[in-house]
Design a protein that fits this description.
The protein is of the alpha+beta class. It has eight helices and 14 strands. The relative contact order is 0.15.
Length: 314
Amino acid sequence: MAGPELPPRRLLELLREVEDEEPLLGVEFSEELQRVNVQVMGEVQLEVLQAVLRERYGAEVSFGPCGVLYRETIANAVVGCGHFEPLRHYAEVHLRLSPGAPGSGITFDSECHTDVLAQNWQNLIRTHVLEKSHRGVLTGAPLTDVRVTLLAGRAHLKHTEGGDFRQAVYRAVRQGLMQAESVLLEPWYSFTAEADAALAGRILSDIPRMGGRYEAPVTGRDGRVAVTGTCPVAQMQAYARELTALGKGRAQLSLAFEAYHPCTPAQQQHLAEQTGYDPERDVENTPDSVFCSHGAGYPVKWNEAPAQMHIQLK
């Protein structure tokens, strides 16, 4: 986040310019918190970024402590439904959520015939599925690696507007997630550690301690040892500084993002408890539906909504 010397919006502009040259930087802006977040490989890269902002733009920027960007996915297939029908509005959507391939993000397809729902509405549903970063229900982390399939939908000849399907889609995704087995994913680095042979034993003992894995060390002609492997970001993000200190400038660590992997059950439980996220209290991402009776809309809880849907899937 920005220090007091630079407004967040101005910092965002500068970071976007740097991001154009370094796409892996990953700049995000939180409207709710008025805070800029950047994705970096560790503390050393953050220091380099501060130096670039200072030298190129004369901007003195401070950042808060580094955190880990977790993601969420699901382990089983579920069907979610969303209904949005306040007065003079109408849309209903039924979606199957199923686990996607690792690294696939959110994908969409349709098994709904155009005789059931016109193609223009199906295209709009696809847009609404893919247009936002959906939040998981375990910790509120962004959802990823989920395949969303349109099973059925319904529009009203007079009362349906585009925004109605947005509401129905968002609610259907959340209603499905409330039923699914959520999985918390954590980022892993691929790394290469290089150091004098005398330090190799310490490195090889540090990696398993951090929950990582490594391949057989390789010794070069100069006697230096190179160790490659993978390790959770949460454990290794401060290791570059530690290794540099241990090697007295003769050791170095190269990091690159490898992939997201499931957390251990114990770790997932700990992080969920630590986060304290309650999906039913997240009013911006509600799993509940809205129905209409006697000219007025009324909310229906996510677990009671399927029985009231106008489409009943077989």
